Amino acid sequence: MINPPTLLDRTIASFVAGALLALLSVAAWLTPSPRGYGTHEQLALRSGGGLQTCTWVALTGKPCPTCGMTTAFAHAANGDFIAAAKAQPMGTILAIASATGFWFALHVAVAGSNAGMILSGWLGKRALWASLALLAASWVYKIATWQTP
Question: pTM to 2 decimals?
Fold first, then answer.
């Protein structure tokens, strides 16, 4: 039998839920770039404007491994999963995982559920290698569908 989460476990779960909610809220606030990348440029570090164009793209003219992730998150946070997958398949998977993780973490924090312990059992070397393989496949997809900026 799994022991119920401790107060520390529930506190950590509440911080995780808050961080994921913040991430998804920012994604929902952004307007996805029609180019399929570059949405991150709307994120302002200071009053001087948004983040710069990806250095990788600027130097190589090709997409980086995470190119389109912010755009995919923005589409997914607004419920447009097809546009999200077109922008960056791995970004779509991560957005859905973030939303799922939010609900699991909130459930652990509020109800003291063991769901977090069960979910953490799925995370391991296989999940890491599968994630890396999906990231690589998504990068290949992004290169194949890339349109020069």
Answer: 0.88
